[in-house]
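Hi everyone, sorry if this is the wrong subforum. Our group has a chain we'd like a structural model of before ordering constructs, and none of us has done structure prediction before. Sequence below.
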Amino acid sequence: MFESYIHFPHIDPVAFTVGPFAVRWYALAYVTGVLFCWQYSRWIVKRYPALGIRPEKFDDLASWAILALVIGGRLGYVLFYQFDYYAAHPLDILKTWKGGMSFHGGIVGVMTGFYLFSRLHHVSFLRMLDLVSLGVPLGVFLGRMTNFINGELYGRITDVPWAVLFPAGGYLPRHPSQLYEAVLEGLLILIVLNVIFWRTRMIQRPGQLVGIGLMLYAGGRFVVEFFREPDAQLGFVWQMLTMGQILSIPYALLGLFLVLRSRFQRP
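Answer:
Right subforum, don't worry. Here is the predicted structure as C-alpha cells:
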C-alpha cells in the first residue's frame, strides 16, 4: 500500500508581481473566466442577432457579474462553511484576500445579479443565463486547476497510482480531487453545452442550456465529493454526505425544473 504516488509539483501560487503587489493564479483564473464569458457571449449574440440581445448588453453585464460572483461566493462560504467563526468575527467577512469562496454561493449570486440586470434592461433572463453558461465552465476549470496549484481542497487518502503527496495533506498520498473537479465540473460541461448549442436549436427554448449545465455540475460535484477530503471544520454533515453534496441537490432540482419548464413552453 502507498508504494506508488506522485510528489506534488511545487508551483508558485503567485503568477507574477507588479511592484509590491502579487498577482496569484487564482485571481487570474477568475479574471480570465469572466473575460472569456463576456467576450464569447458578446460574439455569439453579434453573430446571431435573432437571439434578441444586443452585444452592448454584455458590456454592461460584465461588471454586474463580477460583483455578484464575489458577493455570492463569499456569503455562500460564510453561511454554509464557517458561519460560527464569521458570526463572532463579522469584519473578517470582508477579508476576501484570505480565501474562502463557495461556488454554490457564486451561482446564487450570479443568478440574482443577472435577474436584476434583466429586469432593469428588459432582456430575457433565462436566455442570458443560457448564453453565459456556455463560457462559465472554462472559469470553473481554471479555478479548480489553481486549487491544485495552491495544494488546497485535496482529496482523501488513497493508494491509486496517480495519488499525489500534498504538502498540506500529511504524510500519505491523496486523490488529486481538484483535477477530477476540473474535468467533471469544468471541461466536460464546457464541451457538452457548446456541442448542444452549435449542433441543436435548444437555445430557442430559454432555460434548457443553463438547466443542463446545473444538473451536470451538481452531478459532477456530488460524485467528486466521495473522493475529496471533507472540510475540516464541518466533516460529514449528514450520514456520509458532505456540505458540497447537500448543496448540490437543490441545484440539480433547479436544473431539472428549468429543463422541464422549457419543454412545455413555445420556442
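For your construct planning: The longest strand covers residues 14-18. Residues 6-49+124-263 form one domain.
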